[in-house]
Amino acid sequence: MTTLNPEVTKFLSAQPLKMFVGGRWVEAQSGKTFETLDPGEGTVLAKVAAGDVADVDAAVTAAREAFRKSGWATMPVNDRAVILHRLADLIDKRKEIIAQIESLDVGKPRGQAAAFDVPHAAQTLRYYADLSVHTRRREPIAVSGFDARTIRVPYGVCGFIFPWNFPFLLIGWGIAPALAAGNTVVIKPAEDTPLSTIYFAKLAEEAGVPPGVINVVTGLGETAGAALARHLGLNRMSFTGSPEVGRLVAEACGKNLVPTKLELGGKGAAVIFDDVNVGAVADSLAGAVTLNAGQVCCTATRWLVHEKIRDEFVKQATATLGAMKIGYGANPDTNMGPVVSEKQRGRVLGYLDKGVKGGAKLLLAGGRAEVQGHERGFYVKPALLTGDPGNVCAREEIFGPVAYVMTFNDEDKVIDLVNTSAYGLANSVWSNNLDRANRVAEKLVAGNSWINAHNIFAHGMPYGGCNLSGCGGGVLGPETLSDYLRNQTIARPLV
Ligand code: NAD
Q: Active-site residue among 158, 297, 298, 471?
């Protein structure tokens, strides 16, 4: 039994947990609720308000009102930045509480949430708050015969739909630039992991963000998510999740001509040349594919290993993967927690089955994992497959701790092999020959090419995907702030 922080106990005791709309904590207008589970125990963690069309409408209306009247959009940029810094400071202060909520709801190791997810969200708020202070909002235009200028103003109401793998981190990545630009937001978190978003709204209230600037509607994708995507009151939309749902959201927004950002799935490759420290690279990639139980959109799941080092690499990778400590998120020894749901476990095991039936060979079997004392949790073991590049496990996103090994002996061919993927989020090249590493990194088609590392995120370094992995500008870069500022030209003939 985990010892809960008293603040977490208090937060969870106010069930059903309410939504945050127009600065008020409200139940769903229908009175309906849904359950979110602790994936490490397989038991109900909390009942949460199940928002629907009417609740989304109320939230968008509140956000429109706040955009027009709260002063958020028009206040001096520095004042807005001060509030965002206050929110970031509160996040840091409550880091352990948020990390515990995140660990309970997502299943991830609490230490990882405290070391990465939570502080990274706070830093994103600070990055965009500071950037907004130094961003020009009016530029004179030198045109003959006119007094002309461009002003850059916020759009209005921005909708955000998020997935379940990094709920708290992704709120920061998503809404920080929109808020810093002066927009108001409506957030629909994933139904599997709504808790840290609700807690985030509490912190926003405490930080003095005006009512209606940040709204949270909890609910299911097909109801609350779909209602948000098609709402005529939106001025922008951002969706993070699967390509399948991304398409639906983009279609709904397209019908209303609402500009949309899509941050979607991936099938990242790691290209490993024969001049590396084989053991160290195998360990790094084993760590990458088991981070967050493999539920990481950009992680390396296709391992393209030079044939000369293939056997040594596989030996080390299987040893490291096999030794991973699988366990409950609150246990400090845990390297890898459960996957988020029984459905997700079924998806991972189903892919292993399909892959083997399609001719792939298991180098490490994977399968269900039993964790003593947590028998009902959704645990899986890491798996390693090998085989043909056309195998379903080499092509499709599994979203679990599963990697697929292939070999190569030719630089051009391996580049072509990486680029056969329908996705385009992130790949990495591993070599001590930096000329070669840089050359190959530039030829891989994806939003991100990393060298001698996988999963690199930094504020100021744009992160986004192409092809099936998304479109619309990505996140974390300076350009993302501009994505949330609309250009308007003011002109007068000089007569
Ligand atoms: P998902 O697409 O199933 O769900 C994402 C969100 O969409 C959830 O909030 C869900 O409720 C909502 N939704 C579902 N149906 C909807 C509908 N009809 N209309 C509107 N909204 C709807 O994705 P998931 O399973 O939660 O997350 C996993 C996926 O997210 C993976 O593909 C992963 O790669 C991707 N992802 C991408 C990034 C990135 O930055 N590129 C980051 C994290 C996750």
A: 297
pLDDT tens track for 23-77:
999 999 999 999 999 999 999 999 999 999 999 999 999 999 999 999 999 999 9
Question: Given the CA of residue 190, which atom of ligand 1 is nearest to it?
Answer: 9
397 CB less than 6 Å from ligand 1? yes
Are the beta carbons of 426 and 270 closer than 8 angstroms?
A: no
**Average per-residue pLDDT in the chain?**
98
205 is catalytic: no
Tokens for 367, please give them.
Answer: 């399968």
Pocket lining: 55 vs ligand 1, CB cutoff 6 Å: no
CB 221 within 8 A of CB 252: no
pLDDT score recorded for residue 2: 77
Tell me the C-alpha to C-alpha distance, in Å, between residue 237 and each of 37, 178, 452, 479.
28, 10, 35, 16
Does residue 1 register a pLDDT over 90? no
Ligand 1 atom index nearest CA of 229 = 20
3-state secondary structure 476-495: CCHHHHHHCEEEEEEEEECC
**Does residue 221 have its Cβ closer than 6 Å to ligand 1?**
yes
For the question of residue 297 being annotated catalytic, the response is yes
